[in-house]
Design the sequence.
């Protein structure tokens, strides 16, 4: 049996095992929802199927990887995506760089997430585990069946070539090795909170347990999505040679939309946990996030929209549409049918409360997601109406920019609001410092000659975020010093360790503010010029002068190239050389011409970005595209801070559900902090504190009664034993 045949059979068998596991999950869920005892066999078979499907898909993955590493060009996928001299790193990357291989990789990740959920102890998840695994195994079955029978990476050639074509030169980048992996980890990762949420509806399990069980899954998937978007932007910046990082391309939008809804979901579930509100909205958000992740896969693989990221047109589109329709229909049915479970227990008490701030946050993020979605699909809608319409970057920039500015302001003001009820006077006191800092920053820039309103707004919004985080940390540290005996040097570390989720979130807010500043600086102040230079001539761009000193030719890693030697100067001082180049990849340059390798000189102020555009037949005059990209580094540094903040928010803490009394005392502690920080009026503070103290007394009385009853039972049992012994 050949490696390809083994890979094909193990993949098909994985799909069959996933189907059997889904059937077992349905049986387990039906018994549970009818009030009976869940059959151990059905529940156990579901978990066994999850492990078995992952093992089988792993064997299929190993078969394709082996074919790539051993240059087995009998396999069509290997012949189309690799060649003998291709570096090992890119041979591995070829595993997910083609249509068929990427589907297999997706299937493997889906099976892996399913196995990880099955690894959870059954007593921890209770009756949610079997139906959640059934939903995930359905996804495994769909992707395994699609990959095995529609887009198989194991098709064999009757006349294999001596060597393969190799990986597309645009994909031969260190960023492209990680970009698809990170995005897929995020795309597939959101299926877990979706499955657990739907499982809670299926078995009619009330409460917020499913949020607690999926919090880390959601945050981890969001982190991978964020990293994938950032790394993809860096890949576009370095490899496409156009001086930008984001073009509102349909596939870029497809990754951005689930990120927006997942961000809204992460914020919204806080309100459900704290106030038992927005339950139906959270179910809608988690469904929308998973649907949008599948929609992104549909766009990439159907070829229905033109994009530099999409694969060729294929017959996968209708299959993905059917699968997407089934997810959407099933999710909406459960949300509507279980409406009694999703009734909010409280309402927003004040427009000056933190929960209302979260509602506004969700409305803005939802509006952004819808605007991006409509701009992405409108060419399809117009095509159905017989008109070809292209939606470009101007639409997205014009529609989303005001929403992003509003989101930035809300990011700054929201953390300074108190829970439940406050008043506008308290809000004004809280926001006076960050708003004042923003006004001073914008005024200083205006006095210095900055006149772009968009840039000034971006700076003001970012400063509001920075100022509000600073105010929050200072106030919380002061309140902690008031209520504890912590040494001054340990106040801040203990404050951060006490609530890593909150302060990790604030670090993410700072990161978003930095990214916004970088985007604004690049958008309003970048420079671009196309210059033809003879040897010895120079051109100015931004704060730099570039001097062309001649062309050079050579071979790097077996690939011919032509590079221009460019000297960089600033204020007459030599800073070094750049070598923008054209590279002639065998098997590709004849079809699509030489690929471009840009040269970048980076500083904290910005990037000098040089592209070799072409030259005359003698090489005496060379064309260059010269870019000055100010503040572009803020994007990458902000991305790093976003990752650090998210990882800090994922700081491991004991996984346990707090007792009712503990929740009341936590609410009292938060109320005292809000009072100490001036976020709540005196009358409202007294009302809430009286209610919480009354609830704490009720719980204490109940606990005392339970202990008394237990003591009496133990005494009676002890007396009975003594009497029996006597």
Sequence:
């Amino acid at each position: 049996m050949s490696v390809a045949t083994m890979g094909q059979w193990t993949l098909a068998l994985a799909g069959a095992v996933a189907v059997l596991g889904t059937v077992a999950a349905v049986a387990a869920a039906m018994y549970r929802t009818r009030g009976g005892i869940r059959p151990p066999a059905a529940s156990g078979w579901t978990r066994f199927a999850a492990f078995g499907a992952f093992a089988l898909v792993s064997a299929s993955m190993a078969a394709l990887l082996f074919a790539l590493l051993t240059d087995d060009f009998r396999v069509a996928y290997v012949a189309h995506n690799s060649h003998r001299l291709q570096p090992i790193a890119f041979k591995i990357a070829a595993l997910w760089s083609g249509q068929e291989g990427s589907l297999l990789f997706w299937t493997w990740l889906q099976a892996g997430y399913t196995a990880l959920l099955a690894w959870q102890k059954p007593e921890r998840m209770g009756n949610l585990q079997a139906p959640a695994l059934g939903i995930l195994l359905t996804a495994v079955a769909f992707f395994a069946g699609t990959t095995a029978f529609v887009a198989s990476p194991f098709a064999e050639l009757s006349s294999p070539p001596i060597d393969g074509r190799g990986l597309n030169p645009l994909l031969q980048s260190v960023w492209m090795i990680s970009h698809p992996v990170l995005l897929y980890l995020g795309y597939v990762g959101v299926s877990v909170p979706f499955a657990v949420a739907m499982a809670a509806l299926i078995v009619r399990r009330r409460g917020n347990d499913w949020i607690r069980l999926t919090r880390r899954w959601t945050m981890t998937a969001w982190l991978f999505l964020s990293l994938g978007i950032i790394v993809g932007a860096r890949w576009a910046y370095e490899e496409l040679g156009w001086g930008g990082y984001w073009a509102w391309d349909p596939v870029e939008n497809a990754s951005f939309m689930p990120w927006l809804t997942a961000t809204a979901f992460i914020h919204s579930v806080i309100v459900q946990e704290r106030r038992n509100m927005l339950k139906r909205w959270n179910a809608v958000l988690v469904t929308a996030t998973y649907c949008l992740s599948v929609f992104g896969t549909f766009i990439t693989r159907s070829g229905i929209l033109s994009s530099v990221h999409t694969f060729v047109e294929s017959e996968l589109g209708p299959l993905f549409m059917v699968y997407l329709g089934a997810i959407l229909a099933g999710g909406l049915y459960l949300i509507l049918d279980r409406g009694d479970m999703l009734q909010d227990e409280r309402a927003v008490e004040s427009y000056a409360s933190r929960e209302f701030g979260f509602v506004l946050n969700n409305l803005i993020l939802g509006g952004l997601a819808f605007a991006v979605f409509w701009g992405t699909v409108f060419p399809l809608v117009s095509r159905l109406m017989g008109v070809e319409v292209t939606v470009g970057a101007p639409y997205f920039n014009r529609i989303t920019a005001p929403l992003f500015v509003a989101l930035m302001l809300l990011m700054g003001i929201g953390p300074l609001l108190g829970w439940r009820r406050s008043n506008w006077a308290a809000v004004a006191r809280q926001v006076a410092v960050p708003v004042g800092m923003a006004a001073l920053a914008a005024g200083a820039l205006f006095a210095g000659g900055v006149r772009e309103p968009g840039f000034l707004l971006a700076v003001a919004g970012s400063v509001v975020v920075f100022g509000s985080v600073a105010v929050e940390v200072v106030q919380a540290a002061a309140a902690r010093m008031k209520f504890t005996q912590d040494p001054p040097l340990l106040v801040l570390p203990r404050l951060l360790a006490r609530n890593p989720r909150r302060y990790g979130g604030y670090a993410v807010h700072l990161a978003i503010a930095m990214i916004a500043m970088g985007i604004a600086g690049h958008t309003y102040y970048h420079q671009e010029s196309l210059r033809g230079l003879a040897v010895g001539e120079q051109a100015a761009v931004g704060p730099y002068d570039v001097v062309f000193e001649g062309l050079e030719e050579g071979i790097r890693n077996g690939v011919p190239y032509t590079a221009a030697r460019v000297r960089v100067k600033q204020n007459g001082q030599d800073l070094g050389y750049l070598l923008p180049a054209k590279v002639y990849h065998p098997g590709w340059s004849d079809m699509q011409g030489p690929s471009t390798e840009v040269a970048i000189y980076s500083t904290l102020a910005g990037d000098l970005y040089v592209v070799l555009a072409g030259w005359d037949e003698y090489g005496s005059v060379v064309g260059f595209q010269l870019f000055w990209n100010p503040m572009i580094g803020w994007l990458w540094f902000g991305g790093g801070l976003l990752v650090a903040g998210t990882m800090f928010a994922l700081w491991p803490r004991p996984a346990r559900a707090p007792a009712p009394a503990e929740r009341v005392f936590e609410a009292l502690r938060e109320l005292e902090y809000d009072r100490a920080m001036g976020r709540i009026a005196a009358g409202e503070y007294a009302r809430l504190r009286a209610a919480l103290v009354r609830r704490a007394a009720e719980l204490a009385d109940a606990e005392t009664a339970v202990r008394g009853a237990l003591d009496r039972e133990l005494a009676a049992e002890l007396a009975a034993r003594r009497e029996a012994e006597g």
Observations:
- The radius of gyration is 29 Å.
